[in-house]
Amino acid sequence: MIVLDLPAVQTNILVFGLTADAPDAPTVVDRARARDVAVFAFGPRTIQAVTHRDVSRQACERAADVLLELVED
Question: Which of 4, 48, 57, 66 is most buried as measured by Cβ atoms within 10 A of its Cβ?
């Protein structure tokens, strides 16, 4: 459901794709916002997530779990 080239990640900016059987990016963004996870539609099937140094590992893991739940529904 999520397509991520992990070796290409070099910064706090994470861009990942959504497969055809996942909801589209705007839908995921809206659902994520409702769960207090802020991500951005970077294209119809592409999402961008950006962390900041004050975002904890725990918060990042929660966001990842939320995003996985949203695309698997």
Answer: 66
Domain at 59, CATH number: 3.90.1150.10
pLDDT per residue as tens digits for the range 11-61: 999 999 999 999 999 999 999 999 999 999 999 999 999 998 899 999 999
Q: Are 60 and 67 in contact (CB under 8 A)?
A: no
Q: At what angle do helices 57-72 and 25-34 cross, to 10 degrees?
A: 130
Contacts of 26 (CB under 8 A, 6+ apart): 41, 44
Instruction: Determine the pLDDT at residue 1.
Output: 87
Q: How many other CB atoms are found less than 10 A from the CB of residue 65?
A: 12
CB 2 within 8 A of CB 36: no
Residues of the domain holding 40 = 2-72
